[in-house]
Amino acid sequence: MSKGDPNVSTEGSESMSGPDASSGLSRRSFLLHTGGAASAAALLTVPVAESVAATAPNQAATPPAQVLGPGAIAATLLVNGKPQKVMMEPRDTLATVLRDKLGLTGTKIGCDRGGCGACTVWVAGEPTLSCLMLALDVAGLPGREPQAITTVEGLGKGVAMHPLQTAFVEKDALQCGYCTSGMLMSCAALYERAKAEGKLATISDGDVRAAIAGNLCRCGAYPHIVDATLSAAKGGAK
Amino acid sequence: MSQIEVPVGIVGVEVHSEQREVPDGTPPAWRENASLKQVGKPVPRIDGNEKVSGRARYTSDVVRPGMLHGKVLRSPHPHARIHRIDVSEALKMPGVKAALALPHLLGIADDGSGKTTQVQSVRYYGQPLAAVAAQTVEQAVAALSKIKVDYDVLPFVVDPTEARQPAAPKVFAQPVIARGSAGGGGSKDKLNQVGNVRGPKRSVPRGREVEKQATQVTQALLAGPQGVRATYKTQVQTHSALETHGVVAEWSRAGDELTVWASTQGIFSVRDELAEYLGIEQSKVRVITDYCGGGFGAKFGAGNYGVLAALLAKEAKAPVRLMLDRREEHLAVGNRPGSEQTVALAASTDGKLTAIEVKGFGFGGAGAGAGFAGPALSMYDCPAVYVEEFDVFTHSGPLAAFRAPGHPQGAFALEQAMDELAERLHLDPVALRDKNDTHPARREQRKRAATAFGWQNRTATGQGPRTGKLGEVRRGSGMAQGCWYHLVNVDSRAEVRIHRDGSVEVLTGVQDIGSGIRTPLAQVVAEELQIPIAKVKVTIGDTRLPPGPGSGGSVTTASITPAAREAAYAAKQALLKELQAVLGLDKVPELTGGAVVGLKAGKPTPPLPFDKACARMRRTEVLGSAVRELDYGATANGKRGNFLAQLGGVQFAEVEVSTLTGVVRVLRIVASHDCGRPVNPLLVENQIHGGIIQGLSYALFEERRLDPKTGRILNGNLEQYKIAGALDVPKIEVLLLEELRGRSSTDASGIGEPATVPTAAAIANAVYNAIGVRIRELPITPAKVLAALASAGK
């Protein structure tokens, strides 16, 4: 078994402390060596315990790393508040894992390269293009907590819709609906951020447009999307 | 037949009554929207919750047990002859369950080469040739590289100017024909074809003679005394719906029945084309579209991907999902063709048009029918109108119908020519149109929109306000108008079931492509039955339902809402007859104020609310069914030149142009439109916004670019193929007319297409007003603006 052999299958967490763990190949150095070209699809290394590096800065240069993949690995995704064990390949994007492995098809893939925003979800509360995010990068692995993912299915609380979902329906802020999930995640992130800062009443037309600058709507529902967000903000500010 | 009285006119201007001859059993006409409870109200779409919760199921979301994933092998050459396609090595790849060659290519002009076992020639880069189905998408992609194709690579041409040269490589050796789709398009048969140039298709307004008009136009152009002549160019635009084309195909266990989930604008067109291609009965093919992630004309029929998925599923004996990716979407499933049009106008000194001549070329790649004649033939009252169109074939992806096929192109040329003529005559552009356009809706629209826009404050060319540190930002205003047609598909039927518990179902095989047809259907049925909209369950998107129209040509609302209303009316009559029998009434009772009232032994019965009345039914339901008949009086609809059948639309734009950077920003648009009786103004407004935004995007950003050296696409994505985003969209004010014409039981017409026709022309005219240099080529990029300013010495 050669070090970093992409054909080596590392199944499950047991083998993560196997011989490859001593390769000393960090993700960054691997990317540097390979020029960063599409390497993540074949190989991914994960530091076992980031806390080691934090507490022992002198030894941080080469933390023990493990090689995962290219086969499927069991990892935990924390989606809409629920931790779920999922088998995923290192090359799997968060978008495909959500849709194909977890059946959360509310998240759409419009271009699969970060050009349209249809796949926008929240990672730790921040709008993120899930087609450009490897699922393993946000998944929980031994020694690493999963990051909280929120999809459109988890935007409301239980059966109650998020104020923006209600406003989108009332103001007809959609046509075909394919961009809608991504639009909602971008607009709702703006809404929640403003709400946390007590600034809902100050959200402007320009703020909403900036928030959805990375979300394309081919049907052209932008004016109603802006209306809906401003209306929800106004309602929430009362 | 019987006579009914219908309201006719523009509400708020003048409405009068007319008589119409209608089939017996036709419901009485509705008055203006103000007198109705559900229709004409801004009702939020009834399937909105599905869409905002992520529950709405699109084709790309469908998962079937044991489902495989299909991928398509596409030609890396724009022109080649194919000897052999060998899939045997692909079949040995991990996870692969089926691999096959495409027998016969769809979506391209038909040169008469018959159906075979594999496609024999390649005519564009990205043309589908074969496909595989595997357990994962990645496995399918890997297996594609193992398919061996023996190509004879041939010289090609993708530049339409070069393609016109006699020595240019020919796209088609034989004369072609091109059928249209339900969305429009297609071309006349038996046109002359020399090299890559097919035509001319010669057109004149309806009822006029071609030769006489051609002669008269020539004479009028010579006589003048006033006239303009210029050449305008438009680019290739791709539909770029966010959900790509694709299907999930699944055969029955016995392998004789096919179910297909399709991202389509026409479920019946998918069914019929698959049945024809596969040689099975239409009754054995079922097509389902719960939700479709956008369709702007290119999602009709089975598509090569649909055929391949069905064939793969059959071979693999497992369901196959085959969704195209974004790049394939730009390559091979249609586009709005480019054009080069020379427009000549002649007019009297006081501004009456005496001739309109348009001659030019359409660039639909390997497809025919890239015309632009509509606006020139339909919009103005002009004694001499003549249009000559040629298709120029190139080795690139074929055109498809695209939102008002030909019309944004035609309007871009004609409406700029009108602007140029107005300037030549020292006439206001609105006044010039008032002199030459008697269409009643557009006349009113010009008036309303001009007032709302503040058109009277428009400054002379190049004299607008200047801002920016150096005064480099110039402001300007322009206007343009468009036309489309009241089109109806009579192949439309709806069923309404009234259940014993008072709930109501509407069933019809239309599909929602985003315009939200479920909601108008619920509104017209609720109106007829005097019940809340929440009581009406709408089921669409399945070929097991009564046939509905394909969603193209802006026909859906105009075609299916009358059938739904009449089905509700028939169901209501059945319910009332049932109540007469059950309650022993003297005659058939009436539904009024939401309750049934009748006479028993000469005395009025107490009002029985709708649901309580339903509870008295002896059977579990009553059924009403109705087909869409021709418009009242059996008027032929949608014929060009027939003003009664023409839809208008007038748009005003204000722009800012930086003479330093060449960047054009649209500041605001005021748009006035008509769509007969607006059934749901909230949804109509959204459609108008969408049409304008697509028009703006067409005007300023979008252009499919091919590499002339390789024939490959250079911007097959959504970053370099630029579509307008929220920051590019101006303030849009919509002024909607309620125009009643007494055509059907709902008197509704379409809006999706007219809304996009005038936008690019209005913006171009505004750019001219701002900088005093005319940009006659789309898209109006900063580079073109700077070049135009430089060549004008400004």
* Helix and strand element order of chain A: HEHEEEHEEHEHHHH
CATH superfamily grouping of the largest domain in chain B: Aldehyde oxidase/xanthine dehydrogenase, molybdopterin binding domain
CATH architecture of the largest domain in chain B: 2-Layer Sandwich
Radius of gyration of chain A: 20 Å
**Whole-number tally of structural domains of chain A:** 3
CATH topology of the largest domain in chain A: DNA polymerase, domain 1
Largest sheet of chain A: 5 strands, mixed
Assign a percent range to the helix content of chain B: 25-40%
> What would the CATH topology of the largest domain in chain B be?
Aldehyde Oxidoreductase, domain 4
Q: Count the DSSP helices of chain B.
A: 18
Number of strands of chain B: 35
Helical fraction of chain A: 25-40%
Uncertain segments of chain B: 638-643
Structure description:
The complex is a heterodimer of chains A (238) and B (794). With 238 residues, chain A is α+β, with helices and mostly antiparallel strands. Chain A is 31% helix and 14% strand. Chain A folds into three domains: 1-71, no CATH class; 74-153, Roll (Ubiquitin-like (UB roll)); 155-237, Orthogonal Bundle (DNA polymerase, domain 1). In chain A, a hairpin with a 2-residue loop joins β3 and β4 (82-88). The longest helix of chain A has 17 residues, at 180-196. Chain B is an alpha+beta fold and 794 residues long. Chain B folds into four domains: 62-154 and 242-294 and 299-332, Alpha-Beta Complex (Aldehyde Oxidoreductase, domain 3); 160-238 and 335-410, Aldehyde Oxidoreductase, domain 4, CATH 3.30.365; 439-484 and 638-791, Aldehyde oxidase/xanthine dehydrogenase, molybdopterin binding domain (Aldehyde Oxidoreductase, domain 4, 2-Layer Sandwich); 489-629, Aldehyde oxidase/xanthine dehydrogenase, molybdopterin binding domain (Aldehyde Oxidoreductase, domain 4). Helix content of chain B is 26%, strand content 25%. In chain B, the strands form nine sheets. Chain B has a seven-stranded mixed beta sheet. Chain B has a six-stranded mixed beta sheet with strand order 9-10-18-17-16-11, sandwiched between helices. A five-stranded mixed beta sheet of chain B has the order 19-20-32-33-34. Chain B is globular. The chains are: A alpha+beta (238), B alpha+beta (794). Chains A and B meet through α5, α6, α7 and α8 of A and α1 and α16 of B.
